[in-house]
């Protein structure tokens, strides 16, 4: 598809168009197989968007079809209440503001807000894994992205979709070898291709939920990698170099939503200034991320 080069459009325009191109569903641990209405009190969204409470599960198929690119690829993000509430800009506002060129291919899934690493939070993460497995089984490849990520450029130009990798996943620190399983994975951003190997991975991942007390799903996947599960399934996995893969900025070092919003707002403002000045990165003065540093 053709992507717009002007991704910093007025938020009021963004708000108007958003209703037509983003599909929002409730995916609750208590209701894993149905959709329901969603109420959002946020100036960047219409007052409410809804799907029928008794809508058949094939409504997901319809939404995937409308959001997908020509090669049956979609972008999926999970949103909870904390990310859409705020007196000024919210975390979701920032995410969308950075996301403009790819907005037609974004599927937002809403979940209940849970305390980080509580039993309910971990349960919610496993429901997310189950949902993503369902997407793969429907024949759709996807990028999964956390919502506290700024998309500064189109990542598909760097992911080289013609390659045969089954999984491309971000890591906290690349050890110099993009194929090394010693790299610590980060499930905040990854691209997975729909095929039998990827489906088997997600099924195996979800099946381990009862034998991983106190572990979040990222830790379980990392443990599966260390135990040779990736090799057993014949997966071709590439680990993204976060030093050079500067298409995205992830606020995973911040403890609070307010700190994420504050520092990511500066990132987005700096990025817009950088693009407008035609400077080289080495000569551009980037703002410090003080809110995240002071959130601990």
TrEMBL record:
- Protein origin, superkingdom: Eukaryota
Domain spans labelled Nucleotide-diphospho-sugar transferase: 110-264
Q: Which residues cross the membrane?
A: 12-31
- Keywords in UniProt for this one? Membrane, Transmembrane, Transmembrane helix
The molecule here is called Nucleotide-diphospho-sugar transferase domain-containing protein
From the broadest rank down, the organism's phylogenetic lineage runs: Eukaryota, Viridiplantae, Streptophyta, Embryophyta, Tracheophyta
Give the species this sequence originates from.
Nelumbo nucifera (Sacred lotus)
Q: Which Pfam families match?
A: Nucleotid_trans
Cross-referenced PANTHER family, in alphabetical order?
EXPRESSED PROTEIN-RELATED, OS03G0731800 PROTEIN
């Amino acid at each position: 598809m053709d992507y717009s080069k002007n991704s910093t459009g007025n938020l009021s325009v963004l708000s108007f168009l958003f209703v037509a191109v983003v599909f929002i569903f409730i995916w609750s641990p208590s209701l894993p197989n149905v959709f329901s209405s969603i109420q959002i009190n946020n100036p960047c969204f219409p007052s409410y968007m809804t799907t029928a409470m008794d809508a058949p599960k094939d409504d997901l198929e319809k939404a995937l079809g409308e959001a997908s690119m020509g090669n049956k690829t979609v972008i999926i993000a999970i949103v909870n209440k904390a990310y859409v509430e705020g007196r000024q800009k919210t975390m979701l506002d920032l995410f969308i503001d950075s996301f403009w060129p790819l907005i037609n291919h974004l599927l937002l899934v809403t979940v209940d807000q849970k305390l980080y690493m509580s039993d309910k939070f971990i349960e919610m993460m496993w429901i997310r894994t189950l949902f993503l497995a369902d997407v793969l089984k429907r024949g759709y490849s996807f990028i999964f992205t956390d919502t506290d990520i700024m998309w500064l450029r189109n990542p598909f130009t760097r992911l080289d979709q013609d390659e045969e990798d089954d999984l491309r996943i971000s890591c906290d620190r690349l050890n110099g070898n993009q194929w090394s399983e010693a790299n610590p994975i980060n499930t905040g951003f990854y691209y997975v291709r729909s095929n039998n190997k990827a489906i088997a991975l997600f099924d195996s991942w979800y099946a381990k939920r009862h034998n991983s007390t106190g572990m979040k799903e990222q830790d379980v996947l990392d443990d599966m990698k260390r135990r040779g599960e990736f090799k057993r399934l014949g997966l071709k996995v590439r680990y993204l170099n976060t030093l050079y893969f500067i298409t995205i900025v992830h606020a995973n070092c911040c403890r609070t939503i307010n700190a994420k919003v504050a520092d990511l707002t500066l990132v987005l403002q700096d990025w817009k200034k950088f693009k407008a000045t035609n400077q080289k990165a080495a000569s551009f003065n980037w703002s410090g991320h003080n809110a995240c540093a002071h959130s601990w």
